[in-house]
Amino acid sequence: MNILVLIALVITVWIGWRLCSNRHNLPCPAWLSWMVELDNPFAKAHKANEIIQMLPLQNGIRILDIGCGPGRVLLPLAKNIQDKGGHVTGLDIQADMIEKTKFKANGLGITNVEFINSSIDEAKIDEPYDIILIICVLGEIPKNDRKSVIQKIARYLQPDGIISITETIFDPHFQSRKYVSSIMNEIGFAEDKFIGNKLAYTSHFKKQENKE
User: Fold this and answer.
1) How far from 164 is each of 1, 63, 130, 172, 205, CA to CA, in Å?
2) What radius of gyration do the chain's Cα atoms show?
3) Nearest C-alpha neighbor of 105 from the set 132, 67, 69, 71
4) Lowest CB count within 10 Å: 10, 149, 180, 185, which one?
């Protein structure tokens, strides 16, 4: 196949997927898990190690990874905090993704993880988390539902906790820093920390005082 034709095909798929995700919930299918497992060398702030190093990982920390997929960040994160008594919960709507990640966790001897196979709307979560990760997931949610979904996610957070959002332009669901910050501000969160640039970044948000 001619390289220009291939590039055109990739761009067409990227645009089509992006447009469809504005109206429909379109998570990355499990058979493409090999793609989302890779650290993009052109997007430093998207790399698992960069995301993990940015987090305040105190002893006994509880973390929720929403849309954990095949565990690109979840598994090294869980391994990092295992000796600190930390715990990570991976939530994903796709059972196949969870099974892949469970299998890898067992092979790595990682025991401080659990999984919830559910959408955000139907998730059964009883205890709040110190950190909630949303890594290249926000754009998979229909545009009209994003604010309400983030509000639900915020209910699972400790009062002084962090919502960490990662985006990269290489993902067809990419959401700009300006757009993400506007949604978070509307529900009473302010950006507390940032790494990256306009095309690939991780932002931490904390609840603002005197906001509901």
Assistant:
1) 40, 11, 11, 19, 6
2) 17
3) 71
4) 10
Q: 212 in a domain, yes or no?
A: no
Helix (H, G, I), strand (E, B) or coil at 132: strand
The 8-class DSSP code of residue 110 comes to: -
Give the model's pLDDT for residue 28. Answer: 58
Residue type, 124: K
- CA 87, 191, 182, 166 torsion-angle sign: negative
DSSP per position, 191-206: EEEEEE-SSEEEEEEE
* Percent of the chain whose predicted confidence (pLDDT) is above 90: 63
pLDDT tens for 26-68 read 565 554 444 455 566 666 788 999 999 999 999 999 999 999 9
| Residue 19 one-letter amino acid | L
pTM for this model (two decimals) = 0.82
Give me the torsion for CA of 67, 59, 202, 175, rounded to 10°.
30
Q: Which domain holds residue 34?
A: 3-207
Look at residues 76, 196, 52, 201 and name the one whose alpha carbon lies nearest to residue 131: 52
Alpha helices in 87-173, H assignment, sequence order: 95-108, 146-154
